[in-house]
Amino acid sequence: MRRQEDIAVGNVVGSNIFNILGIIGASSIAAPIHIENINWIDFSYMTALFIGLWVIIQKGSCITRREGSLLFSSYIVYLCYLLYF
Q1: Which sign, positive or negative, has the C-alpha torsion 48, 54, 60, 61?
Q2: pLDDT for 14-38, tens place per residue?
Q3: What proportions of the chain, in percent to the nearest 5, are helix, strand and coil?
């Protein structure tokens, strides 16, 4: 299984999608989930981060150290925002 990054990434993405859709879907059948207010700042930040990651992935087949550092630092900025606001 060495040097098969595609399988590893597919495994991680697939399990995350299943956890989000399958588990939340099954538990909402048992007890409906009500979303009362959405924190639009968090939603907007994560959407922008996802779009940035998508652009990086579409540009090339690998994420460079610079791009990884950019993504990691933006995550740290988000964590600092959560901590102080």
Answers
A1: positive
A2: 888 888 888 888 888 988 888 777 7
A3: 80, 0, 20
Name the one residue in this structure whose structure tokens are 């007890």: 31
**Reported pTM:** 0.55
Dihedral sign, Cα of residue 71, residue 74, residue 76, residue 82 = negative
CA atoms within 13 A on the CB side of 55: 9
Q: Where are the domains of the chain?
A: 1-34, 37-85
Query: How many CB atoms are located within 10 Å of the residue 49 CB?
Result: 14
